[in-house]
UniProtKB/TrEMBL annotation:
Molecular function in Gene Ontology: DNA binding; DNA-binding transcription factor activity
CDD domains on file: CAP_ED
Any Pfam family hit: cNMP_binding
SMART domains on file: cNMP
GO CC list: cytosol
Chain ranges of the Cyclic nucleotide-binding domain: 30-104
Organism annotation: Enterococcus raffinosus ATCC 49464
UniProt keyword list: DNA-binding, Transcription, Transcription regulation
Name this polypeptide is given: Cyclic nucleotide-binding domain-containing protein
PANTHER family xrefs: CRP FAMILY TRANSCRIPTIONAL REGULATORY PROTEIN, REGULATORY PROTEIN YEIL
PROSITE patterns in UniProt: CNMP_BINDING_3 (PS50042), HTH_CRP_2 (PS51063)
């Protein structure tokens, strides 16, 4: 059974100037680890993130690995496809926690959504933020050690002090071997920064995790 729109859903639609679309919207919920959609599938709607955390990935040239583009816990999914008038998903979206979205279908480039100044302004801001974050991730891969990149990856992908992800994808994104990733994770556990719990990790020392990340200087300045 599809959950009904509640007041907090309507508040989000209002934030994006989309209250007039509520009759065609629906709420959808996903479990942790689910693929919301895969790169290349047909795609003709916008998703507004209500709660949870997910990662947006693109396929590596080999076609075997997913490389992280950015994380999201708010904002829009499908904004790139909408603005580029693309009918297929340009990336894959995989949940890292229980995840809820509002699905807003659109017809074509004549849809009233394109004439909505509030929506288009908010969408443009989100695209700009994603571009900045992606550029920062690229710089981090070039300048920082494997441990620093791993700690940053965990910080960005954590949800309520827990971290869950596919280790093969992690290694590909960070740019280290799977074996080296396991060594680094074991070291963080031995140092009391992480605690392994089946298929996920609990962050037990957030301050040390920040200190060892490529974001250390940022946290010193801002926290």
């Amino acid at each position: 059974m599809t959950p009904q729109l509640k007041q907090h859903h309507l508040d989000l639609l209002n934030k994006y100037g989309l209250l007039d679309h509520q009759s065609v919207c629906e709420v959808q919920q996903f479990k942790s680890g689910e693929t919301i959609f895969s790169q290349g599938v047909e795609y003709k709607y916008i998703m507004i993130v209500v709660s949870g955390k997910a990662k947006v990935c693109t396929s590596a040239p080999s076609g075997k690995d997913l490389v992280l583009a950015y994380y999201l816990s708010s904002g829009l999914i499908g904004d790139v496809e909408l603005m580029s008038n693309t009918t297929y998903a340009t990336a894959s979206v995989i949940t890292l926690s229980p995840f809820e979205v509002i699905i807003v279908p659109f017809q074509d480039d004549q849809d009233s959504i394109f004439k909505n100044l509030t929506f288009m302004t908010t969408l443009a801001k989100g695209l700009s933020e994603n571009l900045i974050n992606s550029s920062h991730n690229y710089t981090s891969n070039a300048l920082y050690s494997g441990e620093q990149r791993l700690c940053t990856y965990i910080l960005q992908g954590s949800y309520k002090n827990y971290f869950f992800d596919n280790l093969t994808d992690m290694a590909a994104t960070i740019g280290i071997s799977y074996r080296h990733l396991l060594r680094l994770l074991n070291k963080l556990c031995d140092d009391g920064i992480l605690k392994r719990e089946k298929r996920k990790f609990q962050i037990t020392d957030m301050e040390q995790l920040k200190y060892r990340s490529s974001e250390a200087e940022y946290f010193k300045t801002n926290y």
